[in-house]
């Protein structure tokens, strides 16, 4: 083993995949790029990390809802460009050719170009850590894409793309909840 800088340790655990978070806005829908998300258990509870400096976060907290859209690796450059400007002064859907679709249970839009969309309601906010706890209320998936490749932030401007899938389900059957 070689000593590794503690300040870079987050790069070893950087979660993924990279997602887009949408909210409804005053002039147009908001969308931001986000790399810090995680599932909390076997339920549709998700945590994400952001804060008041972010315009989409402000809208999410005001409306108490959002959509987490999961893009595939072929959208990586577009997704990163979305993260380079603010919805405060840019209609990112128009600017980056994203298609807003109506959601069923929240006002925030789904993104047609993404593999999956999860409509969510805000259930808690841990301000000290910038952690928003969400409850998924409706999920959508592009069932035509049978082998989606997602991309994950490393934390220093590099990204990894999903590789081979290992199916070890038989070893996990007694640990999985019903229906999974």
Structural class: alpha+beta
Order of strands, widest sheet: 2-1-5-8-9-4-3
The whole-angstrom Rg is 17 Å
> Mean pLDDT score, rounded?
92
CATH superfamily: Electron Transport, Fmn-binding Protein, Chain A
Number of strands: 11
Total domain count: 1
What does this structure look like?
This protein has 180 residues and is of the alpha+beta class. It has a single domain (6-172), classed as Pnp Oxidase, Chain A (Roll), CATH 2.30.110. It contains 5 helices and 11 strands. It has helices at 10-13, 55-63, 76-82, 92-95, 169-172, and strands at 19-23, 30-34, 37-39, 45-49, 65-70, 100-101, 110-111, 116-126, 131-141, 151-153, 159-161. It has a 7-stranded antiparallel sheet, sandwiched between helices. A two-stranded antiparallel ribbon has the order 6-7. The longest helix has 9 residues, at 55-63. The chain is globular. The termini are far apart. 29% of the residues are buried. The model has no long low-confidence stretch (mean pLDDT 92).
Topology:
Blueprint: H1 10-13, E1 19-23, E2 30-34, E3 37-39, E4 45-49, H2 55-63, E5 65-70, H3 76-82, H4 92-95, E6 100-101, E7 110-111, E8 116-126, E9 131-141, E10 151-153, E11 159-161, H5 169-172
Antiparallel strand pairs: 1-2, 1-5, 3-4, 4-9, 5-8, 6-7, 8-9, 10-11
């Amino acid at each position: 083993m070689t000593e590794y800088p503690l300040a870079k340790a987050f790069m070893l655990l950087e979660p993924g995949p990279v997602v887009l978070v949408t909210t409804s806005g005053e002039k147009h829908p908001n969308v931001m790029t986000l790399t810090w998300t995680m599932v909390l258990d076997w339920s549709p509870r998700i945590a994400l990390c952001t804060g008041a400096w972010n315009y989409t976060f402000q809208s999410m907290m005001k409306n108490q809802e959002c959509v987490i859209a999961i893009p595939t690796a072929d959208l990586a450059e577009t997704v990163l460009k979305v993260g380079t400007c603010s919805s405060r002064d840019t209609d990112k859907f128009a600017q980056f050719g994203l298609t807003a679709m109506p959601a069923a249970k929240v006002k925030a839009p789904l993104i047609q170009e993404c593999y999956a969309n999860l409509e969510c309601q805000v259930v808690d906010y841990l301000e000290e850590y910038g952690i928003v706890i969400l409850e998924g209320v409706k999920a959508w998936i592009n069932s035509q894409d049978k082998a989606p490749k997602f991309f994950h932030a490393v934390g220093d401007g590099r990204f990894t793309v999903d590789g081979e899938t290992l199916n070890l389900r038989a070893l996990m059957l007694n640990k999985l909840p019903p229906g999974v």
